[in-house]
Amino acid sequence: MSIQQKNKIVIVGGGAGGLELATRLGDTLGRRARAEITLVDANLTHTWKPLLHEVAAGTLNSREDELSYLAQARAHHFEFRLGRVVGVNRTARTIHTEPTRDQTGAVFVPARSFPYDTLILAVGSIANDFGIPGVHEHCHFLDRRAQADNFQQHLLRMHYAADTQESPLRPGQLGIAIAGGGATGVELAAELYHCTRELIQYLFAGLKFEKHMRITVVDGADRVLPGLPARLGEQVAEELRHLGITVLTGERIIEARADGFVTAGGKVIAAETLVWAAGIKAADFLTRIEGLECNRTNQLLVLPTLQTTRDRDIFAFGDCAACPMPDGSAMVPPRAQAAHQQAAMLVKSMHRRLEQRSLPRYRYVDYGSLINLSRYSTVGSLMGNLARYWSPRLFVEGVFARLVYLSLYKMHLLALHGFVPVALTTLANLLTRRARPRLKLH
User: Fold this and answer.
1) Domains held by the chain: number
2) CB 106 within 8 A of CB 120
3) In 3-state terms, what secondary structure has residue 191?
4) What three-state secondary structure class fits 395?
5) pLDDT tens-digit profile of 28-79?
6) CB 313 within 8 A of CB 117
7) Cα–Cα dist 131/129, whole Å
């Protein structure tokens, strides 16, 4: 095909990787009118997904940290279209969105179709309930900002109700059980511990409810953070237990009920607030794209160029893509740093496609892992697969680790806004921090 024909680049998914890619392509190809860049997402605003556990706990106000897709599109020379993609017609080279409805169910944006020359899927991942009975009915999920906001409201209502309740508290009434000892689960547990202790100061002055505020993390593996170095998992588990958070490993959940989780060993974990963070999968609609290959967690199989294995005009990256490591031993892990690296490579790839040149091949670079346990601790290991040049692996904790952790979010913001806006907003946040409550209370 000629260069003129391949000018419609459609990106589906405005998560960290998708939005960074749309911004950078808009600033280069879109600004010079070399291509039409379109971003499609089911939401009007973007919140960095690794922050959703803070939104859920109320320690981060999502309205202060959200970003408007429309405003970003106007400032960076790409178009934004609202809609949830439910299908792809490879023959007609179009994507299809379902109607967008308001809270009453009324349609305010109809179902639409958008043509593409190059389609890039960056729809991320959602929680995988593995078909376990009761999970869908009784558990909270934190895949989207709306879910995190709803959980924060549930948390407030739960504690307000206990504060005004005349009868004794039920067993597990203020208990919170989190299924999944990965990064999301352990970071959420620490954030909720901080949140509930703050609520005591605001709401339960003089009341003796603290002993009822039990937080439990449950995982079927033999330790938390099973995908990360053992030393890191042990240190995180020790920090959680020091806070009074119960850590149960080797306990496989077989049922979720209104009053708690049931494990394969017959243990009942009493808690009326359940959170599911035990696994992920890609969106179901990916499996319905005719002719494309998916694995059992709905991820699209891609080549090292991030092109799907059976259609060179469709790319996928981030959590929704199964990309092989260079040696073929495993797949690239679904982590934010991988999506960031892949987005940067795809900027080069789109330029080369327009010039009909060969595409670069993605090589995952593991810079390590950091786990932030709210205000109490930050621990991690740096350099990841670069550690083969260093012995031993560099483990960090405390203030330095916290600064590195915070810098990850700043790097995301720099990719979206540039240095000056990020520097000014950071300064403004520092100056106004003391005037804001430490917890969102409404």
Assistant:
1) 3
2) no
3) helix
4) strand
5) 999 999 999 999 999 999 998 988 999 999 888 877 778 999 999 999 999 9
6) yes
7) 5
441 found inside a domain: no
- Domain hosting 56: range is 8-125+282-354
Same domain, residue pair 215 and 112: no
User: Residue 290 CA to chain centroid, in angstroms?
Assistant: 27
The SS3 assignment for 86 reads strand
- The whole-angstrom separation of Cα 200 and Cα 195 is 9
120 vs 136: CA distance, rounded Å: 30
Q: What are phi and psi of 419, to 5 degrees?
A: -70, -50
Contact predicate 219/226, CB 8 Å: yes
Are the C-beta atoms of residues 374 and 59 closer than 8 Å to each other? Answer: yes
Q: Which of 279, 314, 329 is the last residue of a domain?
A: 279
Structure tokens at 402: 């916290």
Residue 120 CA to its chain's centroid (Å): 19
User: Residue 273 sits in a domain of what CATH number?
Assistant: 3.50.50.100
For 128, the token pair is 């995988």
| Interacting residues of 129 by C-beta distance below 8 A, sequence separation 6+ | 135, 136, 139, 276
> For residue 234, what is the enclosing H or E element?
helix 230-243
Per DSSP, what are the bridge partners of residue 372? 378
For residue range 76-131, what is the model confidence (pLDDT) as tens digits?
Answer: 999 999 999 999 999 999 999 999 999 899 999 999 999 999 999 999 999 999 99
